[in-house]
Known about the structure:
The structure holds two protein chains of two kinds. The longest helix of chain A has 25 residues, at 169-193. Chain A has ten helices and eight strands. In chain A, 44% of the residues lie in helices and 11% in strands. Chain A is of the alpha/beta class. Chain B has seven helices and 17 strands.
Amino acid sequence: xxxxxxxxxxxxxxxxxxxxxxxxxxxxxxxxxxxxxxxxxxxxxxxxxxxxxxxxxxxxxxxxxxxxxxxxxxxxxxxxxxxxxxxxxxxxxxxxxxxxxxxxxxxxxxxxxxxxxxxxxxxxxxxxxxxxxxxxxxxxxxxxxxxxxxxxxxxxxxxxxxxxxxxxxxxxxxxxxxxxxxxxxxxxxxxxxxxxxxxxxxxxxxxxxxxxxxxxxxxxxxxxxxxxxxxxxxxxxxxxxxxxxxxxxxxxxxxxxxxxxxxxxxxxxxxxxxxxxxxxxxxxxxxxxxxxxxxxxxxxxxxxxxx
Amino acid sequence: xxxxxxxxxxxxxxxxxxxxxxxxxxxxxxxxxxxxxxxxxxxxxxxxxxxxxxxxxxxxxxxxxxxxxxxxxxxxxxxxxxxxxxxxxxxxxxxxxxxxxxxxxxxxxxxxxxxxxxxxxxxxxxxxxxxxxxxxxxxxxxxxxxxxxxxxxxxxxxxxxxxxxxxxxxxxxxxxxxxxxxxxxxxxxxxxxxxxxxxxxxxxxxxxxxxxxxxxxxxxxxxxxxxxxxxxxxxxxxxxxxxxxxxxxxxxxxxxxxxxxxxxxxxxxxxxxxxxxxxxxxxxxxxxxxxxxxxxxxxxxxxxxxxxxxxxxxxxxxxxxxxxxxxxxxxxxxxxxxxxxxxxxxxxxxxxxxxxxxxxxxxxxxxxxxxxxxxxxxxxxxxxxxxxxxxxxxxxxxxxxxxxxxxxxxxxxxxxxxxxxxxxxxxxxxxxxxxxxxxxxxxxxxxxxxxxxxxxxxxxxxxxxxxxxxxxxxxxxxxxxxxxxxxxxxxxxxxxxxxxxxxxxxxxxxxxxxxxxxxxxxxxxxxxxxxxxxxxxxxxxxx
Lengths: 307, 543
């Protein structure tokens, strides 16, 4: 048994040496993002100097990206891990980070890029008791749907890239400013387009649209879920429908990762318009970038309001 | 660069503001120019007065010239003319003095204002600079408001209040923040078994039964920048006496920043063997632990030892784990054995190699092979009496290998609502025993015996809504002491996850025995109610 054991150990060590002696990595900064909007921002700022991989493809729940082991080698070699923050990725990122065995991108290390830095959250719970559902202790994490707050994420990404490669600071800064200017122009356009949406009430499946509502003057009336992460009961749906009728709620938003049956039923019962809106780029067709996604959201809501 | 922008922006603003202000300067005289103008006017007035005085004196001299050329005689002036001339001279002098006095007063006033007051242009520049500096300070404290041009004062006020609250909150540090994250898991099993336990071989009594299987207290925190630690203490009721005992299921230190993709774990922990052996009872997909894991490993793969995990530096996921420990398996005996000496071969050695394939974006395949070897085990379990009540077996060497694979359908879009899992694990045990047919030590009939036995489980589970899933578990195991003693189990089950922390599972299990098994077929219905309070996170192994 012992000679065989020694032979096996020798073979293992030899394999390890071979694998460890891989060619040097390319000069590009390797960035892994949790969601697709962050990947879009990173590409805009980093240009050809970055290699970006998003864990999500766009159709997933922001809290429920599958923990695929195939992510682990990618994260293992990453220079930067860009995330939304506010515990948005609590269900999958901590375990993936642990499995990645990459000290650079662990929490509180230089490669851990929390894009919520500088964002003041809304909906910070007074208590994290589970009677309130799967609450986010740091507040609602869906700030990316407010383009103004998304700009903070762009700046944070730029700062991280500059810290990673100071020699390219001028290029990153120039790209950032150009993209922010583009976002400013689009925001003015979206604001003008969304004028009719001011004061319009809507419901959604999950508490995902609070920042968007605030940015465009809409009113988030309620959610299909009883509490975050808790599925609706018949009593809750009945109560929601009665309230929507009384308060003239005209739009039902269904995020792609949630089933359509209950939102459709509510829309039919209340006469509200049902719309499917992405929560990150790629959530529906023709929304590959953040700007395309926001274009789609604003146009769809304006059209829904007209009907 | 980003920080310096608060200095650069005001400077740029000043440059931008300055030209128009200078243009206004040209159109409207500055203070200094006014003073200079006054001084110039005073000088000009003085020169003009002196010139006029000289001219008048010249006229007076002309009037006093001789009346006839060459005679040397002067003609006397009329007295009234002399008087008129003298009066004019005095009046001019007085007017000049008054004018000079007025000019001096103006000059003094201007000079005074020049030293005490700020010109309108200077004030405009100062105000512009102050406004820009204040704006930069505000942006510095709340960056996201930078782009909110056009916000109302009310919105700004609200934002400032929020900033203040956040800033204030950041100053607070509670002692409780140093506490580890703590969670408590409870699990109760309500069951009905058709047969008595001595007929079915079950570890639970026949008939109706309520069993508080576990109350687990979990605590975890970082030790320092290089390691984290966790503890799982389990209060469990003794199946025979019913008395609760508090045991430490896990208490381990795990490194977090070793180089070369390495991770070390030391202490008491669930060793990585197979697919479900290192999963806690309440996290299993079904109520009971598969028979083969319960019998061959001894339940959960608990060990006191050291384990190293290596993520191979390849673009494809390959993970290799190896460990050494005193015991291995929750029920594995670990006698104190006073006076005994345990050599290196008396320890358990295990290893696992696993990998993963993305078959499609929605279909996944995970697979692995595992091995467990304890070269010398005679000091562990002692003699085990066989079902005939006479003969005994004493384990001399423990060898176990296994293969597992899990095929999963995990749709990216709605995996919380729709998922299919097909999990399988096969174990082969090749244990060496000292067999004593008459049960009398050193009677001469003892001989070594190897038993090669196989066991497996396979389950198919379908999650059709966020709270609802159902599945079917098939179990087969050959007794590791007698491969002809075979047991089969068939277990359909349905799970209702009321929430992430509150779950009910109903399972029916039909058990069949075959071969040399002394037990009879049984039917059981089990209702498991599991709950979690406090902190609870799923690690990589529980994915």
